[in-house]
Amino acid sequence: MPFEITVGPPQLVIHQGHGMLITDYDGQIFWPTHKGLYLLDTRLISSWQIYANGKEWELLNSGNISHYAARIFQTNRRLRTEQGDVPPRTLGLTLSRSISGGIHEDIDIVNHGAKSVCFNLEIAMRSDFADLSEVKSGDIVRRGRITTEWSENGMHLRTVYRNRDFCREVNVVMRQTDSPPVYANGRISFEVGLEPAAAWHACLMYEFGDGKIRLAAPDECIADAAQSKVGKRLEDWKRSALKVKTNNEDFNRFFDRSIEDMAGLRLPIEKTDHLQFMPAAGVPWFFNLFGRDSLIASLQNAIVYPEFAMATLDILGSLQATERDDYRDAEPGKIPHELRLGELAHFKLVPYTPYYGAADATILYLIVLHSAWRSSGDAGLLGRHLQTAERCLDWIDNYGDRDGDGFQEYATRSSAGYENQGWKDAGDAVVYPDGTLVKGPKALCELQGYVYDAWVRMAEIFDALGKADRAKALRAKAELLFRRFNEAFWNEESGFYAYALDGDKNKVLTIASNPGHCLWSGIVPADRASRVIGRLMAPDMWSGWGIRTLSARHRAYNPYSYQNGSIWPHDNGIIALGFRRYGYAAEAVQVARDVTKAAAYFTHYRVPELYAGLQRDPTNFPVQYLWANVPQAWAAGSVFAFLRAILGLRPDAPSDRIYIDPALPDWLPDVVLTDLKVGKRSFDLRFWRDNGDTRWQVLRGESDLVAHRSFATGVQL
Predict the structure, then answer these.
(1) CA triplet 582, 588, 590: central angle to 5 degrees?
(2) Strand blocks (E) in 536-582
């Protein structure tokens, strides 16, 4: 029996809405650290420890009950008291936490010894109110003033940070305590006296505020957390989302974990008349609105939870730029990239108010609009977002194409902007073959594919709206871009596409994963697909744990880097869909198998944002990237993309159809889908292997609405 190896960051995380608590496994926070209690991009608590007579407790075990709740079990070390020593492992300490608005924390202690004990339980906490971006950089600047107020009668500790009109606060209220608290020397203390077999309890309620609104802690303790508002929302989500059952337990757990992670990453956004949920990017660094990430996650969720796309379109559309603002890289029609709510954004010390430095989000918005329409069949959706879409199309022509050559290029105009504005947005991600940084403006290959795809999809939308002339014009533009792209970006010698064109229109012949997105977009001629796929599956690109972002033979290759040789699950999901689009099912399912195998090593099958691009062999396992977001939306959504690639699922609700082209591999021979929603209809489907072929059956729903159609027909994924 093989040893079980678990890979993941040494932390315990609970999160919900705009709040997250990240601690060590023992529930504590030792400063300096990136861990802490965060709300709206501000760290409210930067240090938290619990002691018995000044001694640390000893961790036994800890874990998540769900994304919003965790429990920690500890015991005492040898404890000196006035009554004598308390032997180790005499006392049991349980910390139970749940987050829903604020945090509900229960502290329970049981005396398992034969003698009575008496000691001081102490909780030490501090707040630095640091902006999340400064925590990440390690360069924290205190700009305002912190005050702390203890109310003995009210049994609460209120700590407030103010910098002019910016305010954040945390109020810790003690309830149902078996002994009264006192506050001194920066610590909340309780005198705990326990007879043998006796128990002691205290409840701490952490309330958060911004000077105007206070988020109360949930009344429910962890035992009743499922009955809380967030618990009920989670169960509603699970009931409404697609359910999958296979005879591959790794895939089942990967899928189920991703469903829960997507639920936990739902970001509540207040609208004028209701609350909407769109996917946040990831915990901890991007637990906020991100245009590109939310759009990609919405595409991934098209067969799982189509409602994500509706909210994403609404919210991002409402933030579409209307004027040029170079500091924020904003241009009329551009869809935002990132919105921050911390102190730096409040005082416009950073451009994220929102920031528009993404060259792909505006294009992806159109692709998501088409996908949402195909999933929902809602013609009203097109009418509601048509003006936004028209402005996106104008931006592609007038701003995305900076020099009028017909290709999309980017270069920041902001003193604080991103150097790179594709999905590989690290400053060192776009490199020449010699490893030097590419000069801009840069025309990434995948941007051209996205535009081609967006124009083809929008042509279909205009046909549905009775605007045949607009549809014809967009198809003509798409055909021209197809020809010009394949002339300008193709390199016959390598049988691969250039990573980009640089500022002088020279090909950047670096071998990277980006051309895999061109397969997904359909901009690759069929007679070139095999060479592109073969290059992506060559040993320097294919690691066995997935396809690398950069060739292992490249001078800039570093398997531990952010985007120069690491493996990103979402990247592999998009590439697998591209493989399937051109009929390469074996390669698509191989990539799906690789990432599924990797997922089995990560804690709770939770794939991180990225992991190291080391070569797989019989003696190793995936290696984490230390600063990865976990959970992360489009990493979780990668399994949904793999499922679509394997089953060939393409909803076509406007035509009241769902198309399939299943190709089950031997490692996934039986798949059952429950509650697959297409428009107003819901289906249960079963797929199974039979002597190497894949067969299928409609278990629930009208069978004549489910049709086999090959990916080779060019129907968009």
Answers:
(1) 150
(2) none
